[in-house]
Amino acid sequence: MHRFFVPREQIPIITGSDAHQIQHVLRMKPGDKIELADGSGKIYGCKIQDLKKDQVICRIIEIKQPANALKTKTTIAQCLPKARKMDLIIQKCTELGVFEIIPVLSERSIAKAEKPGRWQKIAKEAAEQSGGSFIPTIQTLTTFADILKLASNYDLALLPWELEKEKTLKQVLKTDERVNRQTNKLLILIGPEGGFSKKEAEQAKTAGFIPVSLGKRILRAETAGITVLSMINYEFEQ
User: Fold this and answer.
1) Domains of the chain by range and CATH?
2) pTM of the prediction?
């Protein structure tokens, strides 16, 4: 069933690009069922009642809580990769249930940041496609120094790093006393293409980030965050 995110105060009326998609792309008709999400986790099962030029008017038939909501709230702080690889990162991390994405400018980040509105739109479309119950927030571009200051706001702050040979992500998630099985608030700092410099890694460790290995292979910048989220979901959301 198709799902659309609509501001809470607007439900059950759909406007804008979503109304256009329903009428002219999906070609839905009165009587068809859709789901509306208000971003807080509530899902509204609806039937289309009427189609107007710029509006789709629905009737709410049920309100439910999503079965796929994740207890773990994971923030991905992603050092900017080249070109538009950030688009893929946002799309796939949203599909995997990321809570928030923070673009980060590090020593080796040479790409320019897109306007947050464009990235937020990508997140919205990915959340709708994957049946998510909320849209992750895409924050404005943050410096490496400022992201380090956020470590203490989380249960765990982790630094996937190819030079870490002892601690694995799996080991930390299973053994660190700050991790619980009910709720977790995690911050994952993902490096740019070329990885973190040793200076950056040391600064991150000093700030409270725990370096972890993701395995024997060196992952691309656009793959690392997706891998981390998949591993976290497997560990906590089985």
Assistant:
1) 3-64 (2.40.240.20), 72-236 (3.40.1280.10)
2) 0.85
